[in-house]
Amino acid sequence: MKWYYLPVVTAASLAAGMASAADLSSKKAPPAPPPPAWLSTMTVDGYVQGGIAFNFNQPYNKLNWGHLYTDRANWPNFNGAVLTAQRPIDPKSTTYDFGFKAQVQVGTDARYNHLPGTSEYWIRDRSQIAFLEANVQAHLPWTSFVSQGGIDVKAGIFPTYNGAEVMYAKDNLFYSHSYIFNFGPFLHTGVMTATHVRDWLDVYAGVTTGVNTFIGWPGNNNAAPSFHGGVGLNLLDGNLTMMAIVHHGPENSKQAGNPFLPFQPFPGAPALTWPNTGVACFCNPNTTDRTFVNLTTTYKATENLTLITDMAYNRESGWNPISPTGFPQNWWGGFDAAIATVNPAWPGSANLPASPQGAESWAVAQYASYKVNDLFKINGRIEYYRDNKNFFVAGFPGYFDAVNFLQNFPCFSCQVQPANVGTTYLALTAGVTITPTIPKLPIITGMIIRPEFRWDTSLNGATPFFRGVNNGSPTGRSRSQGMFNVDVIIPFSLL
Fold first, then answer.
1. Cα(332)–Cα(320) distance, rounded to whole angstroms?
2. Biggest alpha carbon distance in the chain?
3. What pTM value is reported for the model?
4. Which of 310, 431, 462, 463 could serve as a FRET partner for 189 with CA atoms 20 to 30 Å apart?
């Protein structure tokens, strides 16, 4: 190319480039994609669970002592079908975010998951219906020096923050539960906040109506508020988490008697119904508190090995070994009058202590879980549980025993140990979680099978566990019981 052609070529190239740029600028940029719809993250799912607990003691009353969800010996359980609809919030959102969760359960586990005043007497059978969650949630991007990650709020019915094990079966390592879980809180009604102080520090604080209670009568057995709160740590890039949590407040009922079901106060007496059976609790329920404290530590030691330590301390201040709800001296006259109207032959206040002595329990449970592969996970649990007055551990074989006991209604089939003695429990559990691959189905998303061997014993010579029969009569109790338990969980997804 001749050198004098270069200016011509350069000018032509420049003109072409300017024309191309002008053409591009005349075209509008494609619109940004719209934000996802609020309901796009909503899910509807759940599971169906059933199992059986074989007790080698062959207890005469079919009751596995120390168990709730697995309390029926040598008999199949339909533990439940759980349906959950939720729109979860994003706790890391930089803007306001709102969500909800509704969860209902039908099955034998529901006998222990009732909130009084909701569904406790709807079904008169071992399989019942209960509401596990019904709450609204919000993430508030209110950042400050003490809330760098904002604040989350939950209001309504929600599970307790105490302990390592949960009511939602598929999230546990074992079919049977620890004493810490069985005889601690399950549900609360109230408002709970989680303040994300730092990435590694959360502070929880809230107000509830109590343990396993709803609102008003008969939902709240004493109409007094309780505190629920604690601290959560998230360390080592999430491989080490710690939760220190407490629930504290009045739990004793102000009244006794059952407004729906008649009962017979003693053999040969006519059946009585509310309000004839209504007598005041023999304590001041607003000054006799119950405290549940848990420190739960989860350490992911390796990619496949997880260790969990759950420590618990429980304290009931308004209780006496003779009067289950405690008995201040200034209530003696009212007690004697109430007893005389039912049966003058029953002993009066002379046999009762002058003031509540209280009861305590303390416990520690150590878990280990090792994932072998996608099919097998090996699990172990060892638990020490001391019930110093035999106040916390009890048996509830009747359909409505658990909720009647909570309300201080008559509970003649409830099983308790001798008061003011105390029992020290040791429980060893070894099991496997099996998640087989199943054919692809429209709704069912998998299968979980959890066989386990469990051995419970008393370390202080007490005999809390039931034995078999001898010529049709109970042979007494045993210091230990051995069990083989297995359940099957079928998760499903509808949305």
1. 14
2. 131
3. 0.84
4. 310
